[in-house]
Specification:
Helix content is 34%, strand content 23%. With 498 residues, it is an alpha/beta fold. Helix 11 crosses helix 12. The chain binds adenosine-5'-triphosphate. It is found in: Cell membrane.
Length: 498
Amino acid sequence: MRGIVKGFPGVRALQDMRLSLAGGEVLALVGENGAGKSTLMKLLSGIHTPDEGEFFLDGRRVRPRDPRHAQELGISIIHQEFNLMPDLTVAQNIFIGREPRGRFLLRDRELNSRAGELIERLGLSVRPEQTVGTLTVAQQQMVEIAKALSYDARILIMDEPTAALNDAEVAALHDLIRRFVQPDTGVIYVSHRMNELEAVSDRITVIRDGRYVDTLNTAEATMSQVITRMVGRELTTDVGPEDVREDRETVLNVTGLCTKSLLRDVNLRLRQGEILGLAGLMGAGRTEVARALVGADPVTSAEVTLRGRPVRVSNPADAAGHGIGYLSEDRKQLGLLLDQDVSSNIGLGSLRTRFQSFGFVRDKAVRAAARESVESLRIRTPSENQLVKHLSGGNQQKVALAKWLVKDCEILIIDEPTRGIDVGAKEEIYRLLNDLAQEGKSIIMVSSELPELLRMSHRIVVMSEGRVTGELSAEEATQEKVMHYATLRPESERADAA
Ligand SMILES: Nc1ncnc2c1ncn2[C@@H]1O[C@H](COP(=O)(O)OP(=O)(O)OP(=O)(O)O)[C@@H](O)[C@H]1O
C-alpha cells in the first residue's frame, strides 16, 4: 500500500501512509491509540475506501471495493469483536452463506466433514458440531481463523487478537499463526502488547499520527526502540505503588461473598489508599467479584461493610451513590453514550455532584474538566465536542476511565483498565491511579496482565475457580507465586490442608 490518504469529517486519519507485507511473514503493526491502525486495516479489507493511494497484490494493482471483494482477493480480517452466530454450530459458522445445496441432513454432514478437515489442518481444539455460544473466547477466535482460511485467505489481518486471551491461549494462537503462514501467505498483527511482537512477528511497522514512521526487523530491534518510535519521546516507566501504612482504615470489607454460578465464600478487605490487585486465570471469578460488589449481578450471600457500616448494594447506580465506581471490562458496555460527545460522556456521572448549581448544569465547568482529561490521558480527538463513536477503540476506553476519574469516587473498581491502551497512555493511567491512591482513594484492579498487577498493586489477591486461593503483599509477590495460586484447585488445596 502506498500514498494512502484517508480523512473523516474533521480528522485526517491517514496521510501518505505505506505498508508492505512479504509472503511468509508476520508483520506487526503498532502505534498509539488513534494512530490509524484500524483505519488502515479497514481500507485493506474493503470496509472503507481511501481518498487517495494505491494497493498492489503480487505486483498487480488492485482496489478492494468492499469486504466481499477483498475476500475474493484473499484478504480476510478478524476484528476484536467477532462476527459469529452464537446459536449456530462451528461448521455452520465457518460456511455461513456458502452452505452446500441439497437435503438438510446430507448438507449438515458435508458441512461437518469440510469443517473437520479445516480444523484438523489447523490442529484446533473445537469440534464441527459444537455450538459457538458454548465456546470460550479463545475457541471462538479459532473458529474465526478457520473461517478466514476457508476463504483461502492469503492475507490474514488480526486486530488485537489476544486482548481477551490468557497466556496459554496466546501461546496456542501464536503457534497457529506460525502454521498458517506459508511462503505465499502473510499475517498483519495489530497489537499493543510489546512482548507479543517479539514472540510472533518478523518485522514491525510503526505508525504515528496517521503517518508511516519506520519498519524494523524484530530480531534486531529492541522494544524500547519500537516504543520510542511509537510515542515520539522517551518513556519513563518508574511509577510503582507508594507505601501504604498497615494501620490505614479498612474502607471496604467483604465476607462470605457467594453467587449462584461461581463465587464461593470470597473474603476481601480494602484499605484506604490501597491498590488491591485481583489476579487469576480467565474464568477464575475476578470479574464476577467486581460485578457482584457493584450489584451488577445478584449474590446469594455476602456481608459488605463500608467504613464499618453494613451496606446493601443492589445495582451499579446504588454503588455509585455509595461512592463506588465501576469500569467494566467489556468495551461494548463501558457505559459510554456513543452518540454523545466526549465532554458529555466524561461529565455525565458527576452532573449532580460536581457540575450543577441551582439546578443548572455548569456546561463550562464540564467542558473544562473534559479538556483536562483529554490532555492528561492524551485522548486523541479533534476536540471535546467530538462524538465518542468516532474515536478509536483505545480512546473510547480512555473516555470511560476519565468519567470515573472525574467523578471523584472513594472506591474505584476497574476491570482490565488498560486493555487496548497503548504503552504511553498506560504510563499516564498508572500515574493517575497512583495519584488517586496517594490522595486516599482505594482501588480494586482486575487485570490479566501480570506485570501490570505486580507493578501497581500494594496487595494481590489470587483467585481460582471462584474462590480466593492466596494473598500476596507487594514485597512477596512474584509472577511464579501468583501463578501457583492461580492454578491451585481449591478442592485439592483443602485436601492438602487436611
Ligand atoms: N468513522 C470515523 N469518523 C471520524 N473519525 C474517525 C472514524 N474512524 C476513525 N476515526 C479517527 O481516525 C483516527 C484513527 O483511528 P483508528 O481507529 O484507525 O486508530 P487505531 O490506531 O486503530 O487506535 P486504537 O489503538 O485505539 O484502536 C482517530 O483519530 C479516530 O478518532
